[in-house]
Write a structure and sequence with these properties.
single chain, 594 residues, alpha+beta, BirA Bifunctional Protein, domain 2, YbaK protein, Rossmann fold, nine-stranded mixed beta sheet, five-stranded mixed beta sheet, 15 helices, 31 strands, 28% strand, binds adenosine-5'-triphosphate, binds magnesium ion
């Protein structure tokens, strides 16, 4: 069943999505829901096999966990609400006994509850379990085909340990296994430091396929010593220019002016301004919390860092966080707030009329703002700004934290002569030290060597198998179609019989097909009654790495062997065909895995 499309499907924005639809690898069934057609299923099985082999070689054990998960487990971990309410991504349902269930977006809860029942003693540790199965996430913006879908295939592994050192060891061996997996799949992947949430100190690393279409921003140093997801990246920003005006002075400013226009009018630079952003946090077990964030005018807010800082300050989970709009202020009875001219010292009186919100601000300022000696900021009166001489007069409860996005051009911390560069990346894998977050929450404990009971140390390790397949296409294609890395190609060789009406061509094609199958080569025979040109075009589109063309020269026992990657072709005798094809297959494999 080979059904290729002539036109590029209108709803596919990025190359890999277009090519997979056009080549008949996938079909959309609903938003973010795709059928993997036979060609794609072969690719996915090959990737899965590589993943399994590398997981097995770390000593991990394969398992299969239920996709239907009881709400009780998610309530114990404290994630039920965040995952099902508001922008939560867990599909959930009620069964005929009125019990709530979720469709697994991930499996920490289930696996931790199993470990709790099955592992009692340090003697049974460490243990790593893994599975490959369909995950469900009701993504807010499903897009780009298999890149961000609502039903997708993931390999997820979870490890249990008696201590941090043991966790470190498994984490390292997973890192190594992941590097093997990606290079065996023929992918160029960059390992980057990743956010590990509010529980500080634990390691987290993402594996990124660098591509323009990637949804993640990555920052790297030219010397290759530093690479991090922008969510996590740290750096030294350009120095702020000292502001020369020294006395406190009030300056009239137009309503709703941007920082840039403000700076232009006053002939100052954005780095000399402290801008204030008001956000509202939904914090576990608390009233909605207004947050007053101060940033240097030339810096951008990093919401991941902000979320972590809030969770760390309040020792509670941040369920939701968004900018406060003028309309929200109105609904809350706070329309008198000097929106657009707020300074870091806006007093809590401004919240005294709040109906449902907490009546005091949580004040957090980025370190680069705190470092400013003189700066311009809102004067807490509409259309008015003022020059401040430092932070002395500012509220004492302002907490300093790293809240800014690192950017291209910033100096690196490890070597300030190195300047960060920005790239886009597709996250294909993620390894993560969970520490004791879930084992504490679910009271999953074991008896240690001293005979006392303690929570497991845990790690989790994911690979987006279906996303990886598409990322491989995004990284390996040309104007004619896909160029599959041979190790995950649906077939290694495609035999195209130019004219099937020609008995000699047909016979030779079939003989070669049989010979290759007997030698365990993954081979596809295109003996459709189409014109040769149509078949060549399809072969280009499908991206099978090697093509054998049986054409007019068949009567002389000659065939053409074409390599999809560089379109180099040679004419060979049919007797030599097998040997030459096997040699080329080996040549196309990544060097250490032939
Ligand atoms: P993202 O930040 O892209 O939403 P994530 O960090 O939430 O992903 P993890 O929970 O780390 O994802 O899941 C492990 C892997 O599963 C990811 O590295 C990614 O490759 C894959 N994955 C996650 N979400 C999706 C999705 N919606 N569609 C396809 N693959 C996904
Ligand atoms: Mg991730």
């Amino acid at each position: 069943m080979l059904v290729t499309l002539r036109e590029i499907p209108a709803d596919a924005e990025i190359t890999s999505h277009q090519l997979l639809l056009k080549g008949g690898f996938i079909r959309r069934v609903a938003s973010g829901v795709y059928a993997y057609l036979p060609l794609m299923w072969r690719v996915l099985k090959k990737i899965t096999r590589i993943v399994q082999q590398e997981m097995d070689s770390t000593g991990a054990l394969e398992t299969l966990l239920p996709q239907l998960q009881p709400s009780e487990l998610w309530k114990q971990s404290g994630r039920w609400e965040a995952y099902t309410a508001g922008e939560g991504i867990m599909f959930n349902l009620k069964d005929r006994q009125n019990r709530y269930l979720g469709l697994g977006p991930t499996h920490e809860e289930v696996i931790t509850s199993l470990a709790k029942e099955l592992i009692n003693s340090y003697r049974q540790l460490p243990v790593t379990l893994y599975q490959t199965q369909t995950k469900f996430r009701d993504e807010i913006r499903p897009r780009f085909g298999l890149m961000r879908s609502r039903e997708f295939i993931m390999k997820d592994a979870y490890s249990f340990h008696a201590n941090q050192e043991c966790l470190d060891k498994t984490y390292k061996s997973m890192d190594n296994a992941y590097r093997n997996i990606f290079s065996r799949c023929g992918l160029k992947v960059l390992a980057v430091e990743a956010d590990s949430g509010a529980i500080g100190g634990v390691a987290s690393q993402e594996f990124m396929v660098t591509a323009e279409a990637g949804e993640d921003n990555i920052l790297t140093s030219p010397d290759g010593k530093y690479a991090a997801n922008q969510e996590k990246a740290v750096s030294i920003p350009p120095m702020a220019k000292p502001l020369e005006l020294s006395k406190d002075s009030l300056i009239e400013t137009p309503l709703n002016g941007s920082i840039n226009s403000l700076c232009k009018t006053l002939e100052i630079e954005a780095s000399q301004v402290v801008k204030v952003i008001l956000m509202l946090g939904k914090i576990e077990g608390k009233k909605p919390q207004p947050i007053l964030i101060s940033l240097r005018g030339d810096q951008e807010l990093n919401e991941v860092k902000l979320t972590n800082a809030i969770a760390d300050i309040l020792k509670a989970e941040v369920l939701d966080l968004h900018k406060i709009t003028p309309n929200q202020l109105k609904l809350e009875g706070l329309s008198e707030l000097p929106f657009g001219a707020i300074g870091p010292d806006l007093t809590n009186d401004a919240l005294s009329k709040a109906k449902t919100w907490s009546s005091s601000f949580l004040r957090i300022a980025d370190r680069t703002a705190i470092d400013l000696r003189t700066f311009l900021c809102g004067a807490n009166k509409l259309n008015l700004h003022r020059i401040c001489n430092g932070w002395e007069g500012m509220p004492k409860d302002t907490i300093s934290a790293d809240l800014r996005n690192s950017q291209a051009g910033d100096s690196c911390v490890h070597d300030p002569t190195q300047r960060l560069q920005e790239k886009r990346g597709i996250e294909v894998g993620h390894i993560f030290q969970l520490g004791r977050k879930y084992s504490d929450a679910l009271e999953a404990r074991f008896t240690n060597e001293e005979g006392t009971s303690e929570s497991f140390w845990m790690g989790c390790y994911g690979i987006g198998v279906s996303r990886l397949a598409q990322a491989a296409v995004e990284q390996n294609n040309d104007e004619h179609g896909i160029i599959w890395p041979i190790s995950i190609a649906p077939f290694e060789v495609i035999i195209v019989i130019a004219n099937v009406q020609d008995e000699t061509q047909l016979k030779l094609g079939e003989i070669l097909y049989q010979r290759m199958k007997d030698s365990n080569i993954d081979v596809l025979l295109d003996d459709r009654k189409e014109r040769a040109g149509v078949k060549f075009k399809d072969a280009d589109l499908l991206g099978v790495p090697l093509r054998v063309i049986v054409g007019r020269d068949a009567k002389e026992g000659k065939i053409e062997l074409l390599r999809r990657l560089d379109r180099q072709s040679i004419v060979i005798n049919q007797q030599d065909a097998l040997k030459k094809i096997i040699a080329q297959i080996n040549e196309l494999k990544p060097p250490e895995f032939q």
